[in-house]
Amino acid sequence: MTTPTTSFADPASTQSLERAAAALRGHGFAVEILDDAAAARARVQELIPEGASVFTGASETLRLSGIEADINASGRYDTIRVRGQAMDRATQLAEIWRLMSGPDVIMGSVHAVTETGSLVVASASGSQLPGYAGGARRAIWVVGAQKVVPDLSTAVRRIEEHCLPLESDRAMTAYGVPSAVNRLLVLNAETEPGRGTVLLLREAIGF
Predict the structure, then answer these.
(1) Element (DSSP H or E) covering residue 184
(2) Which 3 state secondary structure label does DSSP give 159?
(3) 125-163 residue pLDDT tens
(4) What's the CA gap between 157 and 177, in Å, rounded?
(5) Contact, 126 vs 182, CB < 8 A?
(6) Distance CA 109, CA 56 (A)
(7) CA-to-CA distance for 111 and 119, rounded, in angstroms?
(8) Which residues, at least 6 apart from 190, have a Cβ–Cβ distance to it below 8 Å?
(9) With 80 as the cut, is the pLDDT of residue 6 above it?
(10) Counting runs of H as helices and runs of E as strands, what totals does the chain give?
(11) Is the pTM here over 0.85, yes or no?
């Protein structure tokens, strides 16, 4: 296993954040630059209507910020992750995947945001990718400032050199197996106005 690349943990400059935000807006995404995770946590509660079906993709950003617990333990939402955990994966796996793929709202993060206006996310299982790509009626991503990179090639390098070692360590602790970049999703634009929202933070959080 490689060692995480330290430079990919450093928050981007204000200028880089603003370039990324402007490019994303130009590609159809709604973007808000917020100071920190606490601001994102409050904003998410404003963005998601009570009673909506919500799937939280696996995300250290959501866990560390408290957003994951706010959604899955609050009782305010129809939480797909909680429903799926109560279902029998041996006999109901197809139904679980359908629920995860088409909720009212999917919440998560990404592994990189480019200054050219793309979102890049890697996954071992792919469970969050259908919702991100268009299956969910609305997608909201909370993104730490350290994830902003100049371009797509740097985004892929960030995933391989920085995110994967950290996620593999987490997966080994949680599941006893390392992670892998089995699927890679690049979102270059959002064609449906208002569907994709990026909450871009000025602080670093998550992988």
Answers:
(1) strand 183-187
(2) helix
(3) 999 999 999 999 999 999 999 999 999 999 999 999 999
(4) 22
(5) yes
(6) 9
(7) 8
(8) 27, 28, 29, 196
(9) no
(10) 9, 10
(11) yes
